[in-house]
Specification:
alpha+beta, four-stranded antiparallel sheet
Length: 190
């Protein structure tokens, strides 16, 4: 925006042009933009500026500019329409830039609100639905995972206890225990 023929002119022209862009108003019937520039008010708004310097700047904005990238009105930025009323030559273009930047800011803020909002998920507990935030859901999943892990260990232990010893090949059953000497003595006839 300030890289064209205003570049290198110092802070005062840039401040004055920024004031013009901030204060311009649309004329909806003509699709043009106008600004009220009272030099005394502009000097006060910019701060510590002589009124004469603002008058000179407004005259410069109204005069042809050979270095301007805009060919409309011979490179003029403003066209005087009344005592303090000026047509902003590229007002529609600057307004479009302002609208795009405002839309980006609006989207950025909406995304920021969306990211900061707690996510709501539905969780069924004992056939009674309840609404919880995502962090509670995460804690629930972790505790559920820990319970499943503990149950898996219990199952593995029961299966290991039910398995034959390692010295018996898989697929075969272990040999029956030999009868104890006391059991064989009571079983034999006298």
């Amino acid at each position: 925006m300030f890289e064209g023929s205003l570049y290198g002119k110092g802070p005062l022209p840039i401040a004055c042009w920024a004031y013009v862009l901030a204060e311009m108003k649309p004329d909806f019937g003509k699709e043009q933009f106008y600004v009220e520039l009272n030099p005394e008010k502009v000097a006060h708004a910019i701060g510590k500026v002589e009124e004469g310097a603002v008058v000179a700047l407004i005259e410069e904005f109204c005069s042809p500019d050979e270095k301007s990238r805009n060919v409309q009105q011979d490179g003029r930025r403003l066209v005087r329409e009344g005592q303090f009323t000026y047509l902003v030559v590229n007002g529609a273009m600057y307004n479009e830039i302002k609208k795009r930047e405002a839309k980006r800011e609006q989207n950025r803020l909406a995304q920021q609100r969306y990211r900061g909002k707690p996510k709501v998920v539905r969780q069924a507990d004992d056939n009674e639905p309840s609404w919880v935030t995502a962090d509670k859901e995460e804690r629930f999943r972790k505790s559920q995972s820990e319970r499943a892990h503990e149950e898996a260990w219990q199952i593995a232990i029961r299966e290991a206890e039910a398995m034959p010893p390692d010295d018996v090949p898989r697929g075969t059953s272990p040999a029956p225990n030999p009868p104890s000497p006391s059991a064989s003595a009571s079983a034999s006839p006298p």
